[in-house]
Amino acid sequence: MLVLTRRTGESVRIGDEVTVTVLDIRGDVVRVGIQAPRSVTVHRDEVYRELRKANEQAARSVDEGAALLTDALRKRGPGPPRPTAGTAPTPGPVPTPPVPGPARPADPRHPTPRPPGT
Q1: Are 22 and 32 in contact (CB under 8 A)?
Q2: For 73-109, what is each residue's pLDDT tens digit?
Q3: Does one domain contain both 34 and 7?
């Protein structure tokens, strides 16, 4: 670990893109300002540790979920056979074409003829 002494207003450079400046010192509390490109993530250490902990827990739960899914699929057994190369899949039901309606709205002056007995 590199240990440096800085006074208020003095800075430390990290690489070419990050500058840490001491803004204020009050007792045992030091305020620092950090200038860095948006691509550089900057977190307080306690926040960073919480983020890592949450990410590790999320990764474990995904691993556990994948294991549960794998076990369920193994218990279910093999599914239907898969088609091999060069074979066509089994066709499904053929859709019924829609029934055409009247070509134009009925004209009230010329009623549609009815079949006899209706």
Answers
A1: yes
A2: 778 777 777 767 666 666 677 777 777 666 666 666 6
A3: yes
In this prediction the pTM is 0.47
Dihedral sign for Cα atoms in the order 39, 44, 45, 47:
negative
Distance CA 67, CA 38 (A): 37
* Residues 33-52 pLDDT 10s: 999 999 999 999 999 999 89
Q: Are residues 48 and 33 both part of a single domain?
A: no
Q: 84 lies in a domain?
A: no
Task: Look at residue 24 and give its three-state secondary structure.
Answer: strand
Burial code of 60-79, b = ≥16 C-beta within 10 A, e = fewer? Answer: eeeeeeeeeeeeeeeeeeee
How many domains does one find in the chain? 2
Rounded to whole angstroms, the Cα distance separating 10 from 22 reads 6
